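Q: What residues go here?
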């Protein structure tokens, strides 16, 4: 019993230390469906507040689209709530095979396998496909799910500097004689919003006989002329060996994901991918609704065009106001504050001004790289963006950060 109390005290002290540093991550409770404006309760039990949502992955505004909701209802009525099984026992419906085929056509790959999430897809890929003498070369800013997936593999791991093709080439040269080499990158990097140099990565992979892996979760559905993703944007369709992505962002925003690529790689994942073999199959509601989302995407480009327009306006307006932004062309627009306490205080003030955006700091981003990450949506109308901009400028003036450089921001006391 004494040991239990000692352990409890240890963890309580850890939490207290996080709180005293001003780094405690408090959850805002949404009491509404996802959209450009949402009703939020913060802290729990307080009065509801209507906010402009500037931090959602709902890039195409489809999370609450009436056709998407109707498709989910139809799926529930016709295919049930869940299958209570994994795929290789009695968890495969015809709609699962239909969605896999449909995704392969959309992404222009040879085959596709569904997972409960993209996190699960990333957990399956490296352990399944690589052996101890193989080498994984990852961009230093890849998503946490990729890092966790690589930890499961027997293969050795090395990194290259973020989007540094000369450093990547140096590493490929270093490991030229390995039986299998795989270059690992995000398509759009989730914290900075910049886009991988996928055309250059593919060219190096061809030169050094390496495979290419891309997690395109923050691009599928809207990047590229037809929304296929970064491999379309960079004109390397059919040249990426394995793509993982999610249905939990632009493609409806619920959950689920897939791995798509070379047919022999997908076949091996189906035989040996542990998250696939030992997790319940993707729910019929998500499966059928994702099919409907693909119908909407392929029918008209209006939502992609509006998202691009909103992104351009927001980035230009923030820059002209004097905020420091990370360069990029994606709907992820980080406003750099560098100091964790400042990021927390800024986010709290945004809440008071009717804007929902969250401060990011270590360990979500590197120390000294704290920021407010904003994300655009096709659901945003111009008046949403103008109101949000006014709030950002008001708070920027409060802390006297507009037009300041990094060193000056780090000297601000909160």
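A:
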């Amino acid at each position: 019993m004494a040991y239990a109390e000692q352990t409890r005290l240890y963890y309580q002290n850890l939490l207290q230390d996080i709180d005293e540093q001003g780094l405690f991550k408090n959850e805002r409770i949404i009491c509404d469906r996802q959209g450009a404006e949402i009703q939020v309760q913060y802290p729990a039990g307080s009065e509801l507040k209507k906010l402009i949502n500037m931090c959602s992955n709902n890039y195409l505004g489809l999370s609450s689209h009436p056709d998407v909701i109707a498709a989910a209802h139809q799926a529930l009525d016709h295919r049930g709530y869940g299958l209570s099984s994994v795929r290789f026992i009695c968890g495969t419906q015809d709609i699962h095979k239909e969605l896999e085929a449909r995704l392969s056509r959309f992404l222009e790959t040879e085959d596709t396998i569904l997972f409960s999430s993209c996190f699960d897809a990333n957990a399956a890929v490296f352990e399944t496909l690589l052996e101890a003498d193989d080498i994984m070369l990852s961009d230093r800013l890849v998503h946490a799910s990729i890092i966790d997936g690589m930890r499961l593999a027997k293969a050795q791991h090395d990194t290259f500097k973020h989007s540094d093709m000369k450093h990547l080439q140096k590493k490929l040269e270093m490991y030229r004689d390995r039986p299998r080499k795989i270059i690992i990158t995000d398509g759009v990097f989730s914290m900075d919003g910049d886009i991988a140099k996928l055309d250059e990565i593919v060219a190096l992979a061809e030169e050094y006989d390496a495979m290419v892996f891309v997690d395109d979760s923050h691009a599928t559905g809207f990047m590229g002329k037809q929304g296929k993703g970064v491999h379309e944007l960079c004109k390397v369709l059919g040249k990426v060996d394995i793509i993982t992505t999610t249905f939990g962002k632009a493609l409806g925003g619920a959950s689920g994901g897939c791995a798509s690529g070379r047919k022999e790689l997908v076949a091996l994942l189906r035989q040996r991918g542990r998250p696939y073999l030992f997790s319940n199959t993707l729910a019929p509601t998500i499966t059928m609704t994702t099919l409907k989302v693909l119908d909407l995407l392929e029918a008209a480009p209006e939502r992609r065009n509006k998202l691009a327009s909103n992104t351009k306006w927001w980035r230009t307006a923030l820059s002209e106001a004097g905020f420091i932004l990370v360069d990029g062309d994606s709907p992820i627009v980080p406003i750099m504050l560098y100091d964790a306490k400042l990021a927390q205080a800024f986010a709290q003030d945004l809440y008071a001004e009717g804007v929902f955006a969250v401060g990011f700091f270590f360990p979500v981003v590197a120390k000294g790289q704290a920021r407010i990450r904003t994300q655009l949506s096709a659901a945003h109308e111009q008046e949403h963006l103008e109101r949000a901009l006014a709030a950002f400028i008001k708070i920027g003036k409060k802390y006297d950060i507009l037009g300041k450089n990094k060193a000056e921001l780090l000297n601000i006391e909160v």
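A: Context that may help when evaluating the design: The first strand starts at residue 29 and ends at 30. The chain has two domains: 21-53+301-410, 66-299.
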